[in-house]
Amino acid sequence: MSTKRTKSSFRAMSTNRKLESIFLFVTGRCNAKCKMCFYAEDMDKKEKDLTFEEIKKISETAGQFNRLWVSGGEPTLREELPEIIEMFYKNNEIKDVNIPTNGLKPDRIVAWVKQIRKNCPELNINLSLSLDGFGDTHDVQRGVPGNFYKAMGTLKLIEKNFADDGRVLKNLATVITKYNETEVEDLMVWMLGRFHLSNHIIEAARGMTRDDGVKILTEPTLRALQDKVVPIYNVYGERMAEETGGFRKPIARFFYLGFIRTLYNVRATNIDHPTPWGMDCTAGETTLVIDYDGRFRACELREPLGNVKDYDCNIAKIMASDAMKQEIAAIGHGDKANCWCTHGCWITSSLVFNPRKMITQVYKGYREMKKLNRPVDISEDVLQSIERKYALDVEKLTELGVRK
Ligand code: SF4
Ligand code: SF4
């Protein structure tokens, strides 16, 4: 039996700015050492994670909101992760949860997603596995030997268990750095051909990275890469439309392609220097970030404004606090805004709350995607030539079920 993909809360436009997303860092522990990690300094402080009881208070005081973005550290290292998600589903009626993972705990991921599916039947689960390159490129960037083949095995396991489940989106995220810049296009083609994924997002490294000098993108190089991979997104757009089904097919394709292009356009204009997005960033109005130790912020890139524990973990109080009001004023609005960045989560989240901008940009983005489209060759010959080019271990890939 197959479950059709359902409408995400993300695509519901609104002018009413209220808390829509909480970014909850469920742990400060991680089993990787990524060179481009923007959170390394915070994790190195080795503060205690918020307790389950403290997170419960957060959930009980946040009211209804749509999307929980789980973050960390590595979220699968938080023992009570499924129970935490279930709590937000019951108390806050969340519609979507994002779970990023480095894929080092495959059995746990599968078991926990099954548990969440059983206990939260209406919840859309966006699993997002990190994959930065082929073989050593991925392992070096992630600081874990053998991670690439482990990630391959994890993805195949996820595909096997949730192949027909439209509530479990199987996404990939690649962070572009000096290590993988030249192989991103090949990686995207190969992943498209060897797996049946829902989406493959490319990110620019952001914030203060663990290692210096990993950020190498400029506006022209990022735009060139984004243009080259447009055909791949057209294939994902078709896949999404197929999985959506019925009369919503063309709408799903339109929004998917238009959103991706808009996000990538805004990001490209901000890669060299902050440039106005042409719409308000709604950080602090519609989003709240809670660090693993309870510090809170309007977005991941701005400074903490306090600790939830000083507000008795009461989210309603925090959102109405002077600290948050001052932060929103400091970020600014419209032409007077003074804070811009490349952060995809906030660009897409802010688009939803700027409907007029969204419709124009998404329409423009969709047309650009269609114009730049061309056929993508994912024939066996092409996939095998990529495997030879990057000296992949064919025996291992066959054993993992990645190739026949
Ligand atoms: S980027 Fe994520 S997986 Fe990598 S070290 Fe940082 S928290 Fe861990
Ligand atoms: S523009 Fe970026 S850094 Fe500034 S508030 Fe928004 S998300 Fe944060």
Automatic annotation (TrEMBL):
Which terms are listed as keywords in the entry? Iron, Iron-sulfur, Metal-binding, S-adenosyl-L-methionine
**Top-level taxon of the source organism:** Bacteria
Does the keyword field hold Hydrolase? no
The Swiss-Prot or TrEMBL record annotates one GO molecular function as: catalytic activity
Q: Which residues form the Radical SAM core domain?
A: 14-248
Checking InterPro entries in the record gives: Aldolase_TIM, Radical_SAM_PqqE_MftC-like, rSAM, rSAM_sf
Cofactor requirement? [4Fe-4S] cluster
Is the keyword Metal-binding in the record? yes
Protein name per Swiss-Prot or TrEMBL:
Radical SAM core domain-containing protein
**What species is this protein from?**
Parabacteroides gordonii MS-1 = DSM 23371
